[in-house]
Amino acid sequence: MKITFIKPTIGRREHSLYVDEGRMEPLMLAVLAGLTPNDVDVALYDDRMESIPFDEETDLVAITVETYTARRAYEISEEYRGRGVPVILGGMHVTLLPDEAAQHADSIFIGDAESLWTTVVDDARRGKLQSRYVAPPGVAQFPNVLPRRDLYKGKGYLPMSLMQYTRGCRFACSFCAVSKYFDKKHYIRRIDEVVREISEQNRKFIFFIDDNIATDRKALKELCRELIPLRIHWISQASLDVTKDQNLMKAMADSGCIGHVMGFETITPGSLRDARKAPNISGFSNYQHEVRILREFGMQTWAAFTLGYDNDTYDSVLATMEFALKSKFTFAAFNILMPYPNTPLYNKLESEGRLLYDGKWWLHPEYRFNQAAFVPKNMAPDELTDACHIARKKFNSVFSLMYRFSDMQTNLKTLWRAASYWRYATLFRKELYKKHKMRFGLK
Ligand code: SF4
Q1: Nearest residue (CA) to ligand 1, atom 6
Q2: Which of 119, 236, 365, 415 could make an SS bond with 213 (beta carbons 3.0 to 4.6 A apart)?
Q3: Is the Cβ–Cβ distance between 388 and 336 less than 8 Å?
Q4: Using a 6 Å cutoff on CB, does residue 34 contact ligand 1?
Q5: Does any ligand 1 atom lie closer than 6 A to the CB of residue 169?
Q6: How far is the CA of 400 from the centre of ligand 1 (A)?
Q7: Directed axis angle between helix 246-254 and helix 217-227, to 10°?
Q8: Among 233, 225, 156, 230, which Cα is nearest to 415's?
């Protein structure tokens, strides 16, 4: 028996294919491959950089689906099903919208696939694949199973190993699909398993792709203690409230943490309330304290903003960029607020009749990457799209790159950091222009 795992791309540029040069390892597919019994052959194809050999023989195709890749995932599924090969879809988007996904597959997986993956394989082997498998989210990564990193070979992923320590987040931001998926709960993996996984691969640069690695500060401190002897560099995603705990900041810095993706979201207090961004709201003072602490501990911060709340204006979007530049963030993302299906934000905009693209921007043939998918209160959708693009362009201008590079506390702290800064700053700048207004799907 053979199972083919597929990671879909988002889509294509208007007149050419798109190759994602900033692609990272598809960790969850490697975890599922690791859980697959040894007598089953597995293959992994990454649609972001290679053609999928639809005619190659296989007995089951498993596709991971995110909201941004749903259109392409359904296209791939149809190719295989047209050839009589059964397809199972899983991932966050499938759990958020199971009925939509079910129309495009023989079977769907709702929840964390690890818990029932061996059942799926057994059923497929007997030709008795069920139409739905439901395993409510609520497991940490399984013990005694290492991801099949050998499947990544030759695919040109960024030179950092992706891993997970926790899943989920205790907060409930209104726009966040993670919060909806995990219902504000989080799950922690055994530390000895994490240490083993780091030790059994060669890389010294680790990206913990946890939704919020700081969701449980005590657990994070324990992890930091165990990481010190491994002498690695690591990054993750963390909520801003970590800056309130100096011991935790020190523990992270001592263990090799060089920074996080952090959700600043907005500099407008009213928008913070709209976002229900609890970790940022308490004691809000324009992030002066948070930025100072992050710099004091040498964190190369990737600041993530979501823009387009009811309190936002064209000018406030541009002011956000000025704030990011003044703060000398190593990287920053100026994301348009996106109504992910079934989130509180989506439901609110739907009830107010403000959703565009029939409320399904992820499938709509006219929707383009980085476009507003709803009607903002204080500007036209195109104005929001333009303001965010201008913010991205200015933050990634040559002047801005040099200005941010000159920060002795963060980007110039070591030679390794300086080199990483240039490598990724130039890559992100290039990808920004390539992806802008890209079509979803290839057809
Ligand atoms: S803190 Fe981050 S992960 Fe947690 S609910 Fe908010 S946006 Fe989602």
Answers
A1: 173
A2: 236
A3: yes
A4: no
A5: yes
A6: 28
A7: 30
A8: 233
Q: Which among 67, 87, 22 has a CA at the least distance from the CA of 440?
A: 67
Taken in order of first residue, the domains within the chain and their CATH numbers are 2-135 (3.40.50.280), 159-440 (3.80.30.20)
DSSP-derived secondary structure letter, 438: P
User: Stretch 97-115: mean pLDDT, rounded?
Assistant: 95
Q: Are 274 and 284 in contact (CB under 8 A)?
A: no
Is the pLDDT at 428 greater than 80? The verdict is yes
State the closest ligand 1 atom to the C-alpha of 175, by its place in the atom list counted from 1: 7
For 185, the token pair is: 């709960």
Q: From CA 372, how far away is CA 8, in angstroms rounded?
A: 23
Which amino acid is it at 197? Answer: E
CA of 80 to the centre of ligand 1 (A): 36
The phi and psi torsions of 41 (rounded to 5 degrees) equal -75, 145
Q: Which uninterrupted H or E stretch holds 424?
A: helix 415-435
282 CA distance to ligand 1 centroid (A)?
15
CA 340 to chain centre: 13
Cβ of 179 less than 6 Å from ligand 1: yes
Confidence of residue 282 (pLDDT cuts 50, 70, 90): confident
- pLDDT one-digit tens code per residue, 291-322: 999 999 999 999 999 999 999 999 999 999 99
* 182 pLDDT tier (thresholds 50, 70, 90): confident
pLDDT mean across residues, the chain: 95
User: Against a cut of 0.85, is the pTM above it?
Assistant: yes
Q: Do residues 133 and 106 make contact, with C-beta atoms less than 8 angstroms apart? A: no
User: Which ligand 1 atom sits closest to the C-alpha of 177?
Assistant: 8
Q: Tell me, what amino acid is at 339?
A: P
pLDDT at position 388: 98
Paired with 234 in beta bridges are 206, 257
pLDDT exceeds cutoff 80 at 136 = no
Ligand 1: atom nearest CA of 215 is: 4
Is the CB of residue 272 below 6 angstroms from any atom belonging to ligand 1? no
Tokens of 238: 């963390």
Give the chain's largest Cα–Cα span. Answer: 61
